Amino acid sequence: MTVTYPDVASAAQEIAKNNGTPTVRSVRAYLGTGSDSTIAPLVKQWKEARAAHAASVVELNPAINDLILAQMEQGAKLAASEANQRCDELQSAFEELATRAVQIEALLEARNGELSALQTQLLQQQGQLKERAREIADLNQATSLAVAKAEAGAARERQVSESLRQHLVLDKLKLESLPRIEASLQEARLLLSTANEEVARAKQSEAVADARAAAQSVRANEAASREIKMEAQLVRLQEERQSALNGERLSQKEVLKLTSLVSSLEARCKSFEATLKRATAKNSGR
Questions:
Q1: pLDDT by residue (tens digit) across 72-90?
Q2: Are 38 and 45 a contacting pair, CB within 8 Å?
Q3: CATH no. for residue 205?
Q4: What is the reported pTM?
Q5: Dist CA 10 CA 18 (whole Å)
Q6: Cα torsion at 11, 12, 15, 21 (round to 10°)?
């Protein structure tokens, strides 16, 4: 408990009333608490106040003087009681504030721990975000390479398709030339028939006119020569016709094969273009 002036004044009054001398040691012994440094100035203050009061007060009846002193002592005790109560209240408030400070400090430490955990979590999330950014960059690069590869493949397929179309055009031109070959073959057949008829007429004329035998023989030889030539031409035309027919069958097979291949290539081109569009759309969304 804190020692106050009313405490010291009351103790000094009691000591003086019992014919004692109020000193720092006697007042501390009477109170049972306090230190010399605290009690000494209060005892001095009491002595100065008592001397001033004794100098200014007229000699009174001892009974009146005792009554006044009793009243003063009672007022001092009341003031001391109020001061002690106030001191106790202040002490309780101080202890409550100290307890609250300890609670606030504990709460602050808990908040600091939570803050450290959140900072650690934030650093981890930042690291994860950087890792995701690297993964997205790698994915974009891979997608770009896939798109470029798909575009190159589509370009090669278009070139192959165009080359096949050109071959088809050439094969169609070959097929269109077949009627001309058939017409030449028909013409050769007509020439051969005419030659045969002339040979027959020449042989009939040889039996009738011996005089004309030499001439007919020449004509027969010429006709025979023409027949040989015509037969050779006919053989050549037949070979050409067979070659053309074989070429036609081969061309038809090649046309069918090339048509199927072109269709397959066109489907693959469309598939490449669809894949390219999907990859481009996916790359733009990221």
A1: 778 777 776 776 777 677 7
A2: no
A3: 1.10.287.1490
A4: 0.29
A5: 12
A6: 150
